[in-house]
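[Automated response] Your request has been received and processed.

Submitted sequence:
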Amino acid sequence: MNPRLAMRYPALISSIFLALVAVAALGAPAAPAVTPHNSTHVFQKNTYGGLQQWLAKDASDKHLVSAIRARVLAEAERFGKADYGRATPGARYLRGIKAGQLDITYRELPAGAAIDYAGRDAASVDAIHKWLDAEIDAE
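Generated structure:
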């Protein structure tokens, strides 16, 4: 910006700046809450560990699909750091798995996202299976 202009019209520059800040504060609409009413949460065991899927019941709801993907990605990142949380029913089974013993793959699906969990040894696979069983029972 031209310094002379800023010196000549400080009130105008200040007003424009405040207007831009107000517009930025409005931002994008808030992401919808991911609930059992608008999404499906699936856990499934497999030979290597298991998978978790979150899917929007209405795949055309782009805001919900985006919210699901953000939530699942955050969980994948946490689990990748061996942060399994405390609130989930089966978290106690995962606490013995250290970062690096578990391969975590996040992937997007048309209506949401999924995480594939693969243990690198039999003990890790067993812990994943116990965690999934607890999550399935809690659903």
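Summary generated for your ticket: DSSP finds five helices and four strands in the chain. Residues 62-80 form the longest helix (19 residues).
If you did not submit this request, please reply to this message.
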